[in-house]
Amino acid sequence: MGRLGKWHTESISFIKKLRRLENISLEGLWTHFPSADTDKKFTVGQIRIFNTLIKRLKKDGIVFKYLHCANSVGIVNYKDAHFNLVRPGLILYGIKPFSLDIDLEPLLSLKSKVIFVKSVDKGRSVGYGRAFIAREPIDVATVSVGYADGYPWGLSNKAKVIIRKKMFNIAGRVCMDHIMVDLGRYTKVRVSDEVILIGNSGKFNITAEDLAEWAGTIPYEIVSRLSLKIPRFYKNSSIIHR
Q1: What is the model's pLDDT at position 218?
Q2: What is the pTM assigned to this prediction?
Q3: How many CB atoms sit inside 10 A of residue 113's CB?
Q4: Using H for helix, E for strand and C for coil, what is the string for 196-227?
Q5: What is the predicted pLDDT for the residue at 93?
Q6: What's the pLDDT at 227?
Q7: Using an 8 Å Cβ cutoff, are 149 and 230 in contact?
Q8: Which domains does the chain have, with CATH numbers?
Q9: Residue 215 and residue 159: Cα distance in Å, rounded?
Q10: Residue 150 has what pLDDT?
Q11: Cβ atoms 209, 219 nearer than 8 A
């Protein structure tokens, strides 16, 4: 990976040095795939190097209790990389890493509520920078979510939301704590209506992958940036984190 730890060529001497330290107990050994989803040849070679390292250490009487290197892609595409521990990431949420050919059921939903509804005449602007200008008389809903909550600014004028089982476009820029939604001529939206940012309702579905594509980023960033101030509700559980 080239981020933390030692290069494999330095690992054996380093591990032997650690072993001589009285207050250190060596328990686990792992590596991390930098390109399991894009470079099979490199990844297969990395697994081979890891196995060779394990065997050489064993000859020297060094045996690790825990061995692992498989991330989400490794779990699915590289069965010989499972060892006795694996590290699922995105697939725990039902989100597919790059180029992974597998059917997953999304588990994560992100929801908010409408806090204000107003009429906007043709030619009036909505939000910072006047990035949205109404081409006709419309209704606009203000929703309590913004980039302070981890909803990316890059979704400005691009993302969609679901309200009352209908899909609507974001109007203008994502604000710190709010987004505005172009309701068009649909007049049934009311304050306190649920707004689905990630999830499904009726025939419509919005995934973390959709948000990532609209924002020009990756699904990892979408889910990892969700603010801790957002209440967590665990389905089929009485646990609520606030």
Answers
A1: 92
A2: 0.85
A3: 14
A4: EEEEEECCEEECHHHHHHHHCCCHHHHHHCCC
A5: 86
A6: 96
A7: yes
A8: 8-92 (3.20.20.10), 110-231 (2.40.37.10)
A9: 8
A10: 97
A11: yes
Q: Could you tell me the end-to-end alpha-carbon distance of the chain, in angstroms, rounded to an integer?
A: 36
- Rounded alpha-carbon distances, angstroms, from residue 82 to 52, 78, 214: 15, 8, 34
61 near 26, Cβ under 8 Å?
A: no
8-19 and 40-59 helices, crossing angle to 10°: 30
Which residues make Cβ contacts (< 8 Å) with residue 173, sequence separation at least 6?
A: 127, 128, 129, 131, 132, 153, 156, 157
Q: Quick one: tokens of 142?
A: 């203000």
The pLDDT, as a whole number, for residue 206 is 96
**55-66 residue pLDDT tens:** 999 999 999 999
**Residue given tokens 């690992």 in the structure block:** 11
Q: What is the mean pLDDT of each run of 10 residues along the chain (242 residues)?
A: 91 94 93 92 97 96 95 93 94 82 88 98 97 97 98 98 98 98 96 97 94 94 94 73 50
User: What's the maximum distance between 2 C-alpha atoms anywhere in the chain?
Assistant: 78
Residue linked to tokens 């394990």: 54
The helix (run of H) or strand (run of E) holding residue 181 is strand 179-184
Alpha carbon distances (Å) from 133 to 53, 102, 129, 178, 187? 62, 41, 10, 17, 19
Please give the structure tokens belonging to residue 238.
């009485």
